[in-house]
Amino acid sequence: MASEPVNVNEFQELARQALPKMYYDFYTGGAEDQHTLKENVAAFRRIMLRPRVLVDVSRIDMSTTILGYNISAPIMIAPTAMHQLAHPEGEVATARAAAACNTIMILSNMSTCTVEEVASSCNAVRFFQLYVLKRRDISAQIVHRVEKNGYKAIVLTVDTPRLGRREADIKNRMVAPQLRNFEGLLSTEVDTDKGSNLEALIKGIYDTSLSWEDIGWLKSITNLPILIKGVLTHENARKAVEVGVAGIVVSNHGARQLDYTPATISVLEEVVHAVGGRVPVLFDGGVRRGTDVFKALALGAQAVLVGRPVVYGLAANGERGVRRVIEMLKDEFELTMALSGCPSVKDITRSHVTTTEFDK
Ligand code: FNR
User: Which residues of this UniProt protein bind FMN (predicted)?
Assistant: First the structure.
């Protein structure tokens, strides 16, 4: 085997070696020209740090709280679909790694392990990501199972009324496996003659009519806090606060939905200003370094979510691989805090970064 990875980017190559091309492409890819995919990462490189020296950094405390739950660092696991395509233990392995790192995993609605299997495999704090289906009764049933199994929040993804056009999946005729949260509830069999079955699957089951009024419906069926994932503008951030969400995730779905949306890090501050501290703002898209975590916090995020690197870690080495990915990001973030003169996360402020490059 090649030498041990020294940063999370190196897990991508290990994942490529471990996976059939069809699955690797599914995990890696973005929509259409993949312009936003590149930008999500590139925009971080245009932010520079403004460290302060001669601060006592003999003790660094990375811990923070999310909706009242304490986590060891502001680095959480983003909801990503179908982990059993990366590793036979699937989401159970990912959840165990999250627990070992004392962080929160957001389980995808499109998981290959069930809500129950993941809940019984680890007793850490877990959130659940929801897609609202045309069959509202089935979504309500899943929300009920999520509550019963001790998940602490619903993360409603709102950027996917239809599936973004991911051309590698079309070429590869990517086929989704059984989505076991829906087993016995819904037929997910679709015709694969036209390339990937993902688009048809989503078209068949997701509720494309979902609108702001439906947040009221979701609130009426659950007492769990509801976060909304997929906000990129101050208009939508204000609206989300108005309808009473408990938190916002600034996200462009890892650039897999609408190409030519801006890099998420370049719109984070716009959302943070609109929210004005009324609810927590989380962030995802392109986080690959501890410095990226630091930059997102400086621009007002309470924590970041990590998508692809977690899946690459899972593909490379199961639960241990995911642990390594999270630990590496934590180690880098801790060093960044020390070298920037920030002993705790509340010491990280707007004046620790400059964004002149993308303000131009
Ligand atoms: C995702 N994402 C996603 N989001 C969601 O709300 N539900 C889902 O089922 C999925 N599935 C999914 C699969 C794969 C393979 C990827 C890469 C992404 C989006 C995810 O939650 C997150 O927004 C991005 O992955 C963050 O960007 P990075 O960290 O991958 O750059």
Answer: 79-81, 108, 129, 157, 229, 251, 284-288, 307-308
